[in-house]
UniProtKB/TrEMBL annotation:
Species assigned in the record: Salarias fasciatus
Keyword Hydrolase attributed: yes
Domain RNase H type-2 span(s) in chain numbering: 28-246
Protein name per Swiss-Prot or TrEMBL: Ribonuclease
Gene (name only): LOC115390576
EC id: 3.1.26.4
Signal peptide: none
One of the Pfam families matching this protein, by short name: RNase_HII
Amino acid sequence: MDLGSFEADNSSSCRLASHIPEVCRTEDCCLGIDEAGRGPVLGTQPHELLLCISNQQVLQNYSKTLTETERENLFQKLDEAKSYIGWALQILSPNTISTSMLQRTKYNLNALSHDTAIGLVQYALDSGVQLKEVFVDTVGPAEKYEEKLSQLFPGIEVTVRPKADSLFPVVSAASICAKVARDRVVKDWKFAEDLGEVDTDYGSGYPNDPKTKAWLLKYMDPVFGYPQFVRFSWSTAQTLMDSKAATVHWDDDDEETGEKAAQRQNNRSMLSYFSASAGGKDHNPTRKTHRFFTERRLKSLNTL
């Protein structure tokens, strides 16, 4: 599984795929879809489509308690069965997840997951796969999701079930592939931000993991927040920002200006922060200009 395309720009989503076996274009095939990394506050959420010839007996149900090494070994076996098994992977970046959930017209995680799965099924059809059955691990109410997919893909038998990875071998195999992709991406994450020597001991990435919480506190910038590795739309990240980051007062035409309000609350306004970086009256010569400005070659202007 070559993740180079995603690693080159991990700020956006990316689709990767294996070679599609020729038999999948000439014989009836089944397809399984599962996702990994839905809950963590750190890292990606990969969606995996795995397709094979209709006989699922070549696969088996795999336990969720497998170790990372065991998952890697199983994926290697699946990847070697190129004559009758193929896969496609849609990696949702943390940045994509957060900006989708926080945009003006909210695009929630369930809708994002549904659309990603739909895109993967369409990819298989566009690639000439002779698709007969689709098995999907549900996101939200299973009956509604199944009806939605059945209407979009008439003529294909669609089955959506909770915990489908424990019921259908093709979904179980897709789950293994998705987890392997997340394991690799999180382990070898390429930080776009200049954070120096980054501590990669960030635990599981789940909000209740003490190591994850400690990492979030360590790498939170009080003004600019988190690196793009963090899903900043998660309540865990937002709560830490609210309690630990610099207070910001936004101007309101019906109230006093942000500058005056900040002074009244004994806080520095955003304007004073910018003027300080340019050498204003609060300028601290020992403080370096933040990378946000240097990377974009930004400078403050006193006159226009």
